[in-house]
């Protein structure tokens, strides 16, 4: 599951504009099929977190603007996405910023002549290999141990569960207060190395809502100082039906997010 070496380049797209204005349309018929040249980097940001238990990845998106040569119309700005393990997020962003101008070219097949698919020749990003030889910490211990790690010798109770509203992953004042309590409990006990966050969805709700709720709790904990290495989102759950979903009662417990300690240092006696 660990990405080694090259970062995966995702699909390029997300055009911001159409044909580059009336003059471009009339002069060139919006056809950029033979265009190639330099593109300027305008922005770079993290747009998404991908959970592939037990590891987290980030999608970093760079916005490029093709530069027109004299008496030439250039294609509209476009976005390029790159993915890397979350621990290399800042390194990847710094790598992209290190190349403010790159060669870019229209890719075939052309598709929309006004907004062809573009590729920016960003040099390959290779994470620092020194990190791979370090001792695994926090939730990374689950991956290093082949999917299992040291559980608490006796159950460790964390505040919760987090109760969400029908069809919602919104953070209510009660949820935020509970996040305060949970963050304090985790921070207070350094023996808690990894906390699993598992969301649930009720009958009739999109299954994806379970993950949305879990991610909302994760963001709250991280905003309160819990390092991302100490929390991980497990696959969401939904009730299993033996009859038609319409016949199943919808309970408030179906819309909850639970915390559980999945990596714990039983050798330490100092909380």
**Number of strand elements:** 10
Radius of gyration: 24 Å
Per CATH, the superfamily of the largest domain is OmpA-like domain
Order of helices and strands: EHEEEHEEHEHEHEE
Q: What would CATH call the architecture of the largest domain?
A: 2-Layer Sandwich
* Termini gap: 32 Å
- Low-confidence stretches at least 5 residues in length (pLDDT < 50)? 1-28, 130-134
Arithmetic mean of pLDDT = 76
Tally of individual helices:
5
The helix content, as a percent range, equals 10-25%
What CATH first level of the largest domain would be assigned? Alpha Beta
Summing up helix and strand content along with how strands pair, one would put the structural category as alpha+beta
What is the overall silhouette? elongated
Q: Give, in spatial order, the strands making up the sheet with the most strands.
A: 1-4-3-2-5-6
How many structural units, i.e. domains?
A: 2
Strand content: 25-35%
Q: Classify the fold: give the CATH topology of the largest domain.
A: 60s Ribosomal Protein L30, Chain: A
Largest sheet: 6 strands, antiparallel
């Amino acid at each position: 599951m660990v990405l080694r070496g090259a970062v995966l380049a995702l699909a390029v797209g997300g055009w911001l504009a159409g044909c580059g204005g009336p003059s471009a349309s009339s002069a060139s018929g919006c056809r950029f099929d033979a265009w190639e040249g330099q593109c300027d980097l305008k922005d770079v940001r993290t747009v998404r977190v991908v959970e592939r238990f037990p590891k987290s990845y980030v999608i970093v998106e760079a916005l490029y603007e093709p530069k027109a040569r004299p008496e030439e119309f250039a294609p509209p700005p476009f976005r390029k996405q790159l993915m890397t393990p979350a621990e290399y997020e800042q390194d990847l962003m710094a790598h992209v910023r290190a190349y403010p101008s790159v060669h870019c070219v229209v890719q075939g097949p052309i598709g929309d002549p006004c907004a062809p698919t573009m590729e920016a020749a960003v040099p390959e990003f290779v994470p620092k290999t020194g990190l791979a030889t370090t001792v695994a910490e926090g939730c990374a211990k689950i991956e290093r141990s082949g999917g299992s790690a040291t559980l608490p010798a006796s159950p460790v109770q964390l505040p919760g569960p987090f109760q969400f509203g029908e069809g919602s992953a919104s953070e209510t004042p009660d949820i935020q207060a509970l996040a305060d309590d949970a963050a304090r409990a985790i921070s207070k006990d350094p023996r808690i190395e990894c906390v699993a966050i598992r969301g649930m969805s009720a009958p009739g709700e999109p299954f994806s809502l379970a993950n949305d709720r879990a991610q909302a709790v994760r963001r709250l904990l991280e905003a309160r100082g819990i390092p991302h290495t100490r929390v991980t989102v497990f696959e969401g759950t939904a009730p299993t039906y033996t009859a038609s979903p319409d016949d199943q009662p919808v309970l408030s417990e179906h819309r909850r997010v639970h915390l559980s300690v999945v990596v714990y240092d039983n050798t330490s006696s100092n909380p």
